Amino acid sequence: MYRVKTLLVMATILVLSTSLFAIIEGNGNTDALPYYGNVQPLDTRDTDTRDTDATLTWLDGITPNTNFVGSTNDYFLEYFVAPADGYINSIDFNFSNLFEFSGGGMSIWIYESAYPWSEINAEAIADIAGDAWLGYYDETSGFETTGSNWVRGGVNDLDGALDVDYDPLGAQVWPAFGSGSISLEPNADDGGVVNFDLVAAMGTNHPFLAGDEFVIVVRFNGFETQGDDGDYQAGFLSATLHVDPQPSMKFYGTISSPDGRIGGGLNDWGWYIRSYVWDWGVNVTLTSDRAPVLTGWNSLGVTLDQTARTATCIITDDNPSGGNAGVASADLMYSFDGGDYVAVAMTAEVDTFSADIPGLAGGDIMYYFTATDVEGNVNSTLPLSYSVFVPSAPTLVVFNGGSISGYPFTYYFGISDFTNYTSAGFPHDSWDGPIMADLAAAYTTIYEIAHYGAGPEFDNREVIAAWLELGAKNYGMFGDEFFGAWTGWVDQDYVAGDFEYDVLGVAHIYNDISGAPSAVSPVEAVDGNVLTGGLYTAHTALGDTLLYDPVYEIGGTAVNWLDGFGLVTAGDANMMSLIPGLEYPIGVNRMSDDDHIVMLGFDPISINASPYTWWGFAEESPQTQSLNWFGIWTSSVDNVTVPENSSLSAAYPNPFNPTTSIEYQLSNASDVNITVYNMLGQEVANLVAGFQTAGSYTVQWNGLDAVGHSVSSGLYFYTMQTEGFTATQKMMLLK
């Protein structure tokens, strides 16, 4: 069996701040982004009409990275402003997930926009369950996006928003009657761009005038009885974007949310403002004068350099109607640490405009470009951001291809708030870009964690090797796809002079020994090892079996590929594969001269057990114990504090999506049962069932029922029962 792996190679753009806001001015309209990009060159236009082809999109220059799904009768909406007169030809919908069965489809409409509203700051309330809930129409046919009986949502509880029906849809403007439609058939990639041609579908395009505000609305169709089963859901590729107004909304219907979006029988179906922006492109032909076109700007990544930096942008002005054209002026606007924006006049070399942002001795910079043409039309980009990074701790944690926030990145050391954790002797800095020599030189310890499933984005071997030559350093490398990315998933030997041999102590790589992406692999900690001996003692006392299971622990696009190694020194192994016939080391810790080296060829938080314990989040986990070996954090798994009383803690995070963690304590060894129930008292999932010794534990729930199906949004209860102790807590799943 052959398979193809795709390593995501992204541009080295490091945008650490996500606090963006609308600063757009197009033909006098200051409410939204007019359009970006894909402008047809002048010499290929129709020279009689000078019409210009362009694409309206919110995510030009922003990499979408989120699968945002919906079920049948869920609606999605995105808001646009016309930059000039023209007409819509087609719409590109970038799907990250398609229905797994034939028979699904999508209806499409274009409406005039009744949004935004001056009394609502959409950026401030987006995603907040009550505040972002606008409402719905309660009709005899059900809960609808159109009708006459509007039911107000939680947004009306906000000050200044008490007596308004916040229906985002104005009049339907395309098609004149009914709706456009397109089938959504499964494909091998489970996604991709689906183009909807207005003329082919309904015989007519949609004309607009400069400044017109309109919304594209779609509804998923075809599976009325399957609920929110993931096989019968589709999803758009999206990205988080903070602007005002937020351009995208979702209408939660009764199939995806039979008990209300929040659950518990709450009457909260309908439109919600989201901070997620769907990756849609509206393909248009423009026929009148428009504002300048700004493209090709340089995104300045995070830096240690405290000197001035040059920002550039390509700015053109070419009016389709044949009127006066040309860029009259362009400014670079920048702000330090949330302060007022300062304008710097840009100078031009042909169409490339540039200006300098002054240096900063540490902090965050927001910047954007704005231009005015000879007719007075103004256009601007969305803000960009970068940070001037100042090392502040002896330890650097690098997420190579991942985020420095969110799950699972904040959980790697058994600490629920890892990003802000500075107590217990573990101050650190976080980083999500390539490791530069001047950055590495500031640290005694570097942890490098590869993005689960996809592998590393950057190859830092040369920099790390030179840094280790300085002596007395600690290096931890965690992740199952480093070697695959380096070798193209081809098994090979290493010899003296290779980074893998000299630093990591690896003489041979056996790629993907688990054999299948869904395989759960048996593994074992090495008894007596300085990192994993405590894990061996703790888990064998429970009589469980250690497993490598990232699909369960991480979810999403994670896969269970597991690598094995031939080691330079066999005694360096700290974890072993127990796959029959493939009993290879999968982790190593060793001294290289006076450097401490830990390499885990797997995702370390993905170690659990049967019966279930989440050992990857426990103090006994090898990555957490490496803190001891590196001299960063002193703890001992041989002296576990026995809780005075048994207890069941609140889930964290709560509300959650897609995963939450539940901590519990046992004052005595006992049989333990932790079960999740829905609002009807029906058992949904059993998280823990078996004997455990006294101590503190953590179990995770990823929103799946007993047969592996994703459950709907709503309120759930979880109950812990031991000998002489029972407790119940509640948690809320939001999608």
What secondary-structure arrangement, pairings included, does this model have?
Blueprint: E1 52-56, E2 66-70, E3 75-81, E4 86-97, E5 105-113, H1 122-125, E6 133-139, E7 142-144, E8 150-152, E9 169-174, E10 180-183, E11 192-197, H2 198-202, E12 206-208, E13 213-221, E14 234-240, E15 248-252, E16 270-274, E17 276-278, E18 280-286, E19 293-295, E20 309-316, E21 327-336, E22 342-345, E23 347-349, E24 352-357, E25 363-373, E26 378-380, E27 384-388, E28 395-400, E29 429-431, H3 437-440, E30 445-450, H4 461-468, E31 474-478, H5 482-487, E32 492-493, H6 499-502, E33 506-510, E34 521-525, H7 533-542, E35 545-548, H8 550-553, E36 564-567, E37 573-577, E38 585-592, E39 595-600, E40 607-610, H9 622-629, E41 647-648, E42 660-666, E43 670-677, E44 683-692, E45 695-701, E46 714-722, E47 725-733
Parallel strand pairs: 28-29, 28-30, 30-31, 31-39
Antiparallel strand pairs: 1-18, 2-14, 3-13, 3-15, 4-11, 4-12, 4-14, 4-18, 5-9, 5-10, 5-13, 6-7, 6-8, 6-16, 14-17, 15-16, 19-20, 20-24, 21-22, 21-25, 23-24, 25-26, 25-27, 32-33, 33-36, 34-35, 34-37, 35-40, 37-38, 38-39, 41-42, 42-45, 43-44, 43-46, 46-47
